[in-house]
Amino acid sequence: MKISVLFFLLALCSQLQMVGSTQIGVSGKLTCSGGRPWCFHIVLAEQDRKHSHDTINSVGTKCIWADSFDYALSGSQESDGVADNYFEVMTTIWHNCTLIRPKSILRVQREIIVVPIEKENFAFQWNGDLVDEGERCDFYTQY
């Protein structure tokens, strides 16, 4: 009995990896031509489940008159759960840069990027012209 418990514990320990944190970052330029004020909210997150995510970093709601905005977000992730060896990194932007849907909030989400948890640093760029891009949503809280 004791030997089988010992083997079970050894097998369990071999499945767990001691990995340090991973620095994850995104940067880019958002544009909204038209010479009018527009607002946006950016979230860099790690997807855990369908509706549960770890926010890595965010730009809170910001309103500007300029046609473009340079952004950079970064943060670290420690692990991604038992037996999950990959981070699923997603960037979501909510904005109101629309000509055809006045007073609407649109949500644009970049394709999810899979990053091995062993990687120490991972950075990517995402530039976007936001005019009328995305799906309509009710508020800035939906991933």
From TrEMBL:
The keyword Signal applies. Keywords: Signal. InterPro entries: DUF870_CAE_spp (IPR008588). This is Uncharacterized protein. It comes from the Eukaryota. It comes from Caenorhabditis brenneri (Nematode worm). Residues 1-21 form the signal peptide.
